[in-house]
Design goal:
It is a single chain. It contains 10 helices and 7 strands. It has helices at 16-27, 42-49, 61-75, 97-124, 137-140, 146-166, 191-198, 204-217, 227-237, 239-254; strands spanning 7-11, 32-37, 53-55, 80-83, 128-133, 171-176, 221-222. It is globular. The structure holds nicotinamide-adenine-dinucleotide (NAD).
């Protein structure tokens, strides 16, 4: 996948990784880049990119459908849809049920909705590309945030399922799994959280380089932190050893 001349959508495009990806795709020659976000700043980002920037709750399937319909009515078929919007709780299992429902809605169901809306359309026109932002947390857990770990693991599982099930329909899928990236999400005053997220912190520009290369390679996992592949190998080949190391990290960060 090369983004030049393509119609691209990025959710969570008002901030952080989504903003960086949207502006990079435009700089790489995308024909149109549409952005959706809950943050009203998305309207200004849309103006900057010269196309649609709209306030949309991606966990609301009706709102997401209307947004996708609008983009396709104005720009034609979406070639690359990036389900990137995401939230954390910063909490363990004590996050209340409303928080669990909200994070499930954004981190998992928004990816399901985008796939459900777009795959039949993409299949009919011979193919399309879904880029779903999960996290290294989905492969390796996130110290301190239970719901984030669980939902990002769900997002990885969904991306794998979509890739396996719909490859024959011409649907290509990548799953972006970074560790820490410097964005508003990782800008925490809590010293323990700051300690966790500072590990291997990269800038959004570095992440965007990895995304452009990952899309060109059309591989499922995009790992802007290459060391994640090694951690996954340890997890798969010596699971108890991996758990032991993670428990030690947990104690060193949170006591
Ligand atoms: N920053 C990191 O270290 C890091 C690491 C791994 C994965 N990620 C993932 O990358 C993605 C982007 O995160 P970021 O770091 O840029 O954070 P960010 O907070 O800067 O951006 C996330 C954006 O998503 C938007 N959003 C949240 N809920 C929404 C909803 N219901 N509908 C529409 N928009 C919504 C927010 O308004 C925000 O603009 C997220 O999925 C996040 O989980 C981030």
């Amino acid at each position: 996948m090369q983004v030049n001349d393509k119609v691209v959508v990025v959710t969570g495009g008002a901030s952080g990784i989504g903003y960086e990806l949207a502006t990079r795709f435009k700089a790489e020659g995308a024909a149109h880049v549409a952005v959706a976000d809950m943050n009203p700043h998305v309207v200004a980002v849309g103006k900057e990119l010269g196309f649609i920037g709209e306030v949309v709750d991606v966990s609301d399937v009706a709102a997401l459908t209307a947004f996708i319909d609008k983009v396709e009515a104005e720009a034609g078929p979406i070639d690359l849809f990036c389900s990137n919007a995401g939230i954390g709780t910063g909490m363990g299992i004590d996050a209340d049920d409303d928080m669990w429902a909200a994070i499930w809605g954004v981190n998992v169901m928004a990816h399901v909705y985008a796939a459900r809306i777009l795959i039949p359309r993409m299949k009919e026109r011979g193919g399309g590309y879904l880029l779903n932002t999960a996290s290294a947390a989905g492969l390796l857990t996130n110290l301190g945030d239970a719901a984030y770990s669980v939902t990002k693991a769900g997002a990885v599982g969904l991306a794998e399922w979509l890739s396996i099930t719909h490859a024959a329909d011409g649907i290509k899928v990548s799953c972006l799994c970074p560790m820490a990236v410097r964005t508003p999400m990782t800008d925490s005053d809590d010293p323990a959280v700051a300690n966790v997220v500072s590990h291997g912190m990269i800038e959004t520009e570095v992440l965007a380089d990895a995304v452009i290369a990952g899309l060109a390679a059309e591989e499922l996992l995009i790992l802007p932190h290459p060391e994640v592949a090694g951690f996954m190998q340890t997890k798969a080949s010596a699971h108890e050893k991996w758990l032991h190391g993670m428990r030690k990290l947990q104690t060193s960060f949170f006591g």
